[in-house]
Amino acid sequence: MAIRPSITRDLAKSICVPLENCEVCPCREVTAISTSASKEAMAKQMGAKHFVLATDPDSLKAAAGSCDVILNTVSANHEFMTYADMVGPGRC
After folding, report:
1. Global pTM?
2. Pair 52, 59: CB distance under 8 Å
3. Could you read off the pLDDT tens digit of each residue along the chain, which spans 92 residues?
C-alpha cells in the first residue's frame, strides 16, 4: 500500500492523505492543513480538495472526523493533538 501525498512538504503543517491503493477505502481526497490562510489557493491548485486553517477553531471543528490518515511534516515542536479530532474512527 503506497501513500502518496499530492501536496509538497513545505506547503502545509500537516497533510491528510488518501490511501489511494487501499481497495476497501473509499477515500481519494487530500486535505491540506496550514496555519497560513494564504496557502489555501496553492494547496487547491496542487490537488487538495479541502483546506483546514489550523489557527481557526471553526475550520478545525468543521473538519472533525473527515480524515483517515494525517501525515505530519512539521519538524518543529508543535501541538499535534490539535488535529487528532480530524481523524474519524473506523474510516478505513
Report:
1. 0.67
2. yes
3. 344 444 444 444 444 544 455 555 555 678 899 989 999 999 898 888 899 999 999 999 999 998 888 888 888 888 888 888 998 876 55
- Identify whether the C-beta of residue 61 lies closer than 8 Å to the C-beta of residue 33: no
CA angle at residue 25 from 24 to 30, to 5 degrees?
Answer: 160
Helix (H) or strand (E) holding 60: helix 57-62
Where is 71: in which H helix or E strand? Answer: strand 70-72
Three cell numbers written together for 73: 511534516
Q: What is the end-to-end Cα distance of the chain in Å, rounded?
A: 13
**Under 8 Å between Cβ of 14 and 83:** yes
